[in-house]
Write a structure and sequence with these properties.
By secondary structure, this protein is mainly beta. The chain has two domains: 35 residues; 342 residues, YVTN repeat-like/Quinoprotein amine dehydrogenase (Methylamine Dehydrogenase, Chain H, 7 Propeller). It is built from one helix and 33 strands. A five-stranded mixed sheet has the order 1-27-28-29-30, with no helix packed on it. The protein has a four-stranded antiparallel sheet with strand order 2-33-32-31, with no helix packed on it. A four-stranded antiparallel sheet has the order 3-4-5-6, with no helix packed on it. The chain starts with a helix and ends with a strand.
Length: 412
Amino acid sequence: MIRITVRLAVKTILAVAIVTGVLILIAIMIIGRCRFAESKKPVTVPQPQLPLVDSGNWPMFHGGQNLSGKAQGNLSDSMVLLWKFKTGGEVKSSPSIDDGLVFVGSADANVYAIDLKNGRQVWAYKTGDAVEAAPCVLGDSVFIGSSDDFLYALDAKTGQLKWKYQTDGKIMGAANWTPSPDGHTIWLLVGSYDNKLHCVDSATGKVVWTYETGSYVNGSPAVDKGSPTIGLAGKVVFGGCDAKIHVVSVADGKMLTQIDTGSYIAGSAAIVGGRVYVGNYDNVFICADIAAGKIVWKYTEATSAIFSSPAVGQNVVVFGCRDKRVHCVNSDNGKPVWTFQTSGEVDSSPAICGDKVVVGSGDGRLYMLRLSDGKQVWSYEVGRPITSSPAVAGGMVVVGSDDGFIYAFGPG
């Protein structure tokens, strides 16, 4: 009887063990499946947010290839200083903004990358002389000229040198860009005091072609992308110190036309709707038709030389002048719309954003004006001349000054 009881107990224990083992195995399989399913779920990583009220960058001088000086979004009626960054020399270079970074040159010979959010230096690259040109940012590269005669290609994140291209004169104006005719690469276009416009392969730094003028090329070239007569590569248009507006085929660097303005051109031209807008040293602001190769109208109410590059809005063109005024004219006929009086020469190139115009002056102030009537909305005094042109992106304004600082303003 005892043996039977023991056998039954052993059988019961074995049965319980087997059942328990099966249950444990099933539990392990279920848990494993759940974990495998969880591992296949996408993981959402929080993205850092910049303090911007509108999207958009300002990756090159005057915002885009046609140099129209027009920004996305709107600006607040009241701006506050968010930060300022000290360089070792005057800042005549105009800032560019891309992917949360501000890029700018200085008379201390450095190119700087600054965090847009907090104004801290990310990197600096030393060239051989003062940097007055504005940077052109494309993808992961920053292209910028220096008074040491070189065009530099720098890594946008680290500031490391990729290549440099030598001209035979200093580079004062910003580089522009265009796709090559075959669409396989990007070409850079930059003027030099060697009297030439240079076309350079952005990937290699090798020259593609050069176009020779009769004198210095001080400003930045503007690119017209909409010309079916010479293919997708379009036209490049720029003014020279030889007093001419040059229209050149991007495809091969051949001259398409020249338009004599009567006096040398120090600023950059803007192209909108097949028309080019630019001022000259003889106090005249000019609108010319590119296809016809002739002047459409002249504005002659400026009383001093025009070094400022124009911003083109809806039916209006706005530019600064050394007569200490900001001028706004009708883009169709050149008739005056309004003028705004400052206390210093206005070499800074204005930017249009929504219903406002932002521009610096030699009187040491940054001004915000209403586009409709030229009335002052806001201003900020830095105390030294502002010849740098403002960059506008995401509701922020960034500009350099002769006091060596970069200033960043945001909604107040």
